[in-house]
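Take a specimen:
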Amino acid sequence: MTVGIPLPKGALEEPETLRLLGPDGLYVPLQVSSLARWSDGSVKWLLAEFLLDPLIEGSSPWTLVEDDDREQGSRPGSLLVREGLQSIVVETGVATFHVGRGDEPLIRVVVDGRELVDPASTRVVLVDSSGREQALRIEEVALEARGPVRATVRLAGYFGGRGSCRFTARFRFFQGTGLACMRVTLHNPNRARHPGGIWDLGDPGSVLFRDLSIELGLEGSGEPTITWEAEAGQSPRSMIGGDLEIYQDSSGGENWNSRNHINRSGRIPCSFRGYRMRAAGREEFGLRASPLISMSGTDGRVAAASKRRYRELLDNWAACAEARRGCSVLPPAA
């Protein structure tokens, strides 16, 4: 849980003195930071992060208290971070993640002593407008945040070639869980030209690309089992081996082919309403995909979900899982 809390002037000087009491009256692991301060130096906006156990139906109160003497609560596992020359290692108590300082952003994932991810099949790649693949070049890997609940590792780099784009990714790891949240930002460093004072698509300073993929390959032999739901509320479906594609072509709304969606050529690129799913020789259609995809191999399982799956905020999403070599998850179309 991540919560922003506004505070009156003078109410709190140091956020580190706060503790969180759960519904059972016990201390809950808490990570706090100040996002803004008042003119007197007191905290104006507080960011509080904590982990929840399963809840019972009804109201469950949590209470923030100031207490310098108490130790924070603990849960099974721990969050340990080690910085080395080759990688930053984060141990959550459930899984161990190795974030490389080279051009492979996530080189190892270890669960119960077993390697889960195949480094040779793990990469971030951009396909330019001519169909050429541009590999990611990492320039900086830094530990951005660490605490009792969360650790964040920030990567910064670029894609080579003409019209290169800047790339920033933040890996967030959480105590006592195997969850890794990856937030990606793609940045065009070229300045816009605006010839004739016209702000339009296809500006000479813009960058056109076909695809940005984050690919993960599982360790182990044999065909993996793919389980998925294209939308929330659907019954999960599974298959062994083969290819799965969930592609969102347009918003899925009534105005999916509106002139507001024209591209730089003045053409509406959307070809049909909603999304398309292809699996096991079948093709199905829907309006708004919010996919959840899991791939299970002999040595472990990897699952991925869109942001909208939990927040219902994204209208455009495309995902592709290449079962024989791994999983590739694509961001919303540009």
